[in-house]
Amino acid sequence: MPISRNTIGSLAVGGALTATLAALVYPSMLGVQTTSSDPSRVIANTQWGPLTEGDRDFVVKVRSAGLWEYPLGELALEKGSTPEMKEAGKHLIVGHAGLDDLCRKIAPMLNITLPNQATPQQQQFVATSAAQSGRQFDSTAANIMRVTHGQIFPTIAKIRASTTNTLVRQLADLANDTVLDHITVLEKTGVVNFDQVNFQQTTPPKLPKAQLTPPAPQPGAPMVALTPRPDLNVNTASPAPSPAAG
Predict the structure, then answer these.
(1) 41 — alpha (psi -120 to 50), left (phi > 0) or beta?
(2) How far apart are CA 53 and CA 170, in angstroms?
(3) How close are the terminal C-alpha atoms of the chain, in Å?
(4) How far apart are CA 129 and CA 136, in angstroms?
(5) 133 Cβ contact partners less than 8 Å away, ≥ 6 residues apart
(6) How far apart are CA 22 and CA 17, in angstroms?
(7) How far apart, in whole angstroms, are the C-alpha atoms of residue 185 and residue 177?
(8) How confident is residue 123, by pLDDT bands cut at 50, 70 and 90?
């Protein structure tokens, strides 16, 4: 049964990937204690080009997305009731492992501190899906993820079009392919309620910043890494073809 508008609304999917960074601790060389409201403001000049607040926010958003979508992909592989749902789980795992690897490579080069946990809202997405089983799990998980992927897609395009930092541009290229792949396999599950998804994508609820901000990593804590899964034999950097019409 497709997830209802009220159910998705109660999960507050609207700001799923909006990772506000004021609570994160960034290297002092960036020269800021708090961030401004201007995403185009340059916060560092690097050998790969200027780094803006929008660039930095994007890197953290991609990292935060993987910290909840990877485990939800594992749940889909375990609990999905159809081959299509299990296939979507494989793509989530592989895609976010690849994005996470690139995030962890470029973040120290750009002096960006990455979180080790997803936002409280994103963690709730996983908990809500994990509490379901069978076809209800499929519907809940697929619709939540289809909303969040649909919301981040325009952000990726905006960053790709505007950034002058070559490392951020590389991440945006990979994120664009990966998110398109994920949207496609989620739609192939047959449980996406497009009316509800489109409503949630365009009318996101307003949440406190604390719900949308990934916790700062503990000092000295090892970096969490999402495990690559080449054994799953999918390539999310080459988007899956869209379902044929008819």
Answers:
(1) beta
(2) 17
(3) 23
(4) 9
(5) 79
(6) 15
(7) 13
(8) very high
**CB within 8 A of 150, min separation 6: which ones?**
183, 197, 198, 201
Helix axes 166-187, 53-79, angle to 10 degrees: 30
Average pLDDT score over residue span 25-39? 40
Averaged pLDDT for residues 234-246: 65
8 A C-beta contact, residue 36 and residue 53: yes
Structure tokens at 97: 């492992």
Output the six-digit token pair for 189: 């599950």
- Neighbour-count burial for 104-126, b at 16+ CB within 10 Å, e otherwise: bebbeebbbbbbbbbbebbbbbb
What distance in Å separates the CA atoms of residue 93 and residue 86, rounded to the nearest whole number?
11
d(CA 79, CA 76): 5
From CA 3, how far away is CA 192, in angstroms rounded? 8
What confidence score (pLDDT) does residue 76 get?
Answer: 98
DSSP β-bridge partners for residue 42: 52
* Location of structure tokens 């560092």: 44
Q: What is the mean pLDDT of residues 129-152?
A: 96
User: To the nearest whole number, what is the mean pLDDT of the chain?
Assistant: 84
Query: Rounded distance, CA 147 to CA 221, Å?
Result: 32
